[in-house]
Amino acid sequence: MSNLNHLQGKTALVTGSTSGIGLGIAQALAQAGANIVLNGFGDVDAALASLTATGVQAIHHPADMRKPDEIAAMVAAAQARFGGVDVLVNNAGIQHVAPVEAFPVEKWDDILAINLTSSFHTIRHALPGMRARNWGRIVNIASVHGLVGSAGKSAYVAAKHGLVGLTKVTALETAGTGVTCNAICPGFVLTPLVAQQIADIAARDGISTEAAQARLLADKQPSGQFVTPRQLGGIVTMLCSPLGDEVRGAAWAADGGWTAQ
Ligand code: NAD
């Protein structure tokens, strides 16, 4: 990257950023100079402190990504405090694993609302300002499950495939402007979302957490290594630099080889 502070004076809104991947991305964007709007239900004070330590300004908005009115209020709060949203990272997401015929209806509704529909709302509220300034970056954190399926994950796979589709259409509608829209498709990252799946494997198979982690990876991820939030933050900041000007509508896998198989 030509300029380490290439996002100075810009504002980034990252949904679901009090832990895991979202926090790692927010930290990378702060290191590149962006002011940050955090969102999510985790440890807000610790997350904010990790950002302001880099010298940027950061606020938290508690919007629930299932609630369109609260999403609108969050984008309005970012505009009121910082003058607009230049970088929008749609990251909030939840998981639930069950066979399709036994999938709890309320879990299906929540997963579709948080993992897909919230991005429609954030995009429709943030895009007019980006168009007016003729610069913007929208990065949707999809998943390998936006590209391929896995048994037991019907709602998640449906939502993430939908998010990749929304990414392509938004990229086409903004082609020819200074706004880009892309998706990143991570494989397994060791966050609270995946920790639950590891705990379930350990309990089911009567093995240690370490053995369950190895089994989870061996099943899908040829590298045998977890992807890290820091690596994903690096991809997002690259997409937000001039190097990313003509990356449009991509679904960028970062998955240890999962989807190469
Ligand atoms: P995480 O559980 O650590 O973080 C999820 C974040 O979303 C938290 O900040 C949480 O408070 C927030 N959140 C949950 N429900 C919310 C709601 N209703 N409104 C607002 N915020 C809400 O999970 P993570 O692993 O960091 O996942 C982040 C994103 O990355 C998700 O979209 C997930 O699908 C995706 N992803 C994760 C992995 C992985 O292996 N961990 C792989 C591919 C994609």
From TrEMBL:
<feature type="domain" description="Ketoreductase">
    <location>
        <begin position="10"/>
        <end position="178"/>
    </location>
</feature>
<keyword id="KW-0560">Oxidoreductase</keyword>
<dbReference type="Pfam" id="PF00106">
    <property type="entry name" value="adh_short"/>
</dbReference>
<comment type="similarity">
    <text>Belongs to the short-chain dehydrogenases/reductases (SDR) family.</text>
</comment>
<dbReference type="InterPro" id="IPR020904">
    <property type="entry name" value="Sc_DH/Rdtase_CS"/>
</dbReference>
<dbReference type="InterPro" id="IPR050259">
    <property type="entry name" value="SDR"/>
</dbReference>
<protein>
    <submittedName>
        <fullName>3-hydroxybutyrate dehydrogenase</fullName>
        <ecNumber>1.1.1.30</ecNumber>
    </submittedName>
</protein>
<dbReference type="GO" id="GO:0032787">
    <property type="term" value="P:monocarboxylic acid metabolic process"/>
</dbReference>
<dbReference type="InterPro" id="IPR011294">
    <property type="entry name" value="3-OHbutyrate_DH"/>
</dbReference>
<dbReference type="InterPro" id="IPR057326">
    <property type="entry name" value="KR_dom"/>
</dbReference>
<dbReference type="InterPro" id="IPR002347">
    <property type="entry name" value="SDR_fam"/>
</dbReference>
<dbReference type="GO" id="GO:0003858">
    <property type="term" value="F:3-hydroxybutyrate dehydrogenase activity"/>
</dbReference>
<dbReference type="InterPro" id="IPR036291">
    <property type="entry name" value="NAD(P)-bd_dom_sf"/>
</dbReference>
